[in-house]
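The protein record quoted in full:
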Amino acid sequence: MYQRKARPESLFGHIFGEDTGYLVTFTGQQARFTRPDARPNELAGIVQRSWRYPDEGQQAAEYLIDEAQLERDVYIGVHLFRERGNRLAANAVAKVNALWLDEDRGTYPDIGPAPTAIVHSSRGRRHLYWELAQPVAVEWAVAMNRRIAVWAGGDIGKAGLASVLRVPGTANYKRHPRVDLVVMELTGARAWEPEVMEQAIPEIPEPKARAVEPYNGPEVELGPYLENVEVLGEIPDGLGMKLAIICPWSSEHSGGDRSGSYVGQRFGGGLWFHCNHEHCQGRTWRDFRERVRPKNAIHLTRRSGSPNRARRVNVSRG
């Protein structure tokens, strides 16, 4: 039997349980309300706040409802944080009590473990949650979220620890003048043992091996392109250097989500950029390079006797 819930604290209790920490709220208004040329779902007047949980959970719920009444889209971090002030992955609590999925355009398979809660974020769009019978390490939760997202064809970018999702009792103004109310249903499914989820959710298929042509372009260093980018940390990668970063287009991500973006350099020297978010599909290293171009101009000059190699020369700041 589904039980409909219509307030933010219903979701808080379901995914946070009796944990303590800081609940992060994230609110903003659709920029096109005041700028008709704004990008779809671009948010303006963004406000992020931290609330001591559970002590200030009720205040946070009232605040979110009030913000929604002001025609502002509202979100929460889907787990608690250790310290007030940010929702970087490094600030996440060590353990969580639930898994989550932004189904996006995908569909979670009926044969999988039933979600314990479903938040209808808009017409035809859902966020799914699986309450766990015991807390799990955040690293395991993120890995499992990614497996669920791949299986469901959902938003892999929302599997990470910086993700924010909508809450019941508020409204979705993304398609204004159509306004979608955000509601939640408790499905009646029991809390799942982590081992059961581990066995039931398929592993992410290994990518098919493909031949990689040696990089024969000019020598270009990655470092200068990171001057205007926040780097979260290095990710192990057998093909070279891989860094998790805050995407330079994160303001276009749903809820300003800052996870799921990477940049790197292959052992052969080639530079690359990839972001899992829908708004960044098709963006390449060239787009990233133009967006974060270093203040120092970069000139490439040919080396004598080597037509395919070059050296980088920094020009002083003007």
